[in-house]
Amino acid sequence: MREGYEGTGPGAITPDGCAVELYSRLPIGKEPDIIAAAVPAGARILELGSGVGRMTHPLLERGFTVTAVDESPAMLERVRGARTICSPIESLDAGETFDVVLLASFLVHTGDKEVRRGLLSTCLRHLAPGGSLLIQREGEDYHSNVPRERVDPEGFTARIRSSEPVGDGVHSVHAEYEFPDAIWTQTFLVRPMTREQFEGMLGEAGLSVAEYLTEDRMWVRVVREGEQTGRVVRE
Question: In the chain, what are the domains?
């Protein structure tokens, strides 16, 4: 397990504390529809950090071609119908570029700045000219509205128990998922970022915001700097 990361509960646990069985149970929300509305029909998508394919499978159903990347073989064993690559994101070389690169699950908020630079370098390296990078950010109250819980219609309760500063702008977050027959927990490190910090970080990587796709600004379409024709930044 990586330092600062921990996971508990039935089944295999990945080095960043994710439980394979838990993510196989969690439903997917509106994310595939948000993505489908933001990119060309039939686009070739590189999904970084795909996990068990919760987003992969709905995107395939919508007619996209998806290459799913994850560092966990146990996660990728659950992916069906997509090309899969087992690799850390920051060292990935898929040997081609894609119309769309997808960096979801708040991965851009990783606590390690060097890892974050590696993530964005991989995104840029695999993005075709004129392509889009779609990033999922944390909500603006992610670390202030704590503790909190949400009872899902599928019959489980998701909780953020705590978000505690641990130094250098990094927080340790403790999450819990309670099902009728099992409980999983995950502890992980993240770096909160304001909108200004997020956009500044993108600029350092040679990227810029083309459009905020949702009213809460959690989903963002990002392009290479200099490819901003038709740019729309929703406030």
Answer: 20-140+194-224 (3.40.50.150)
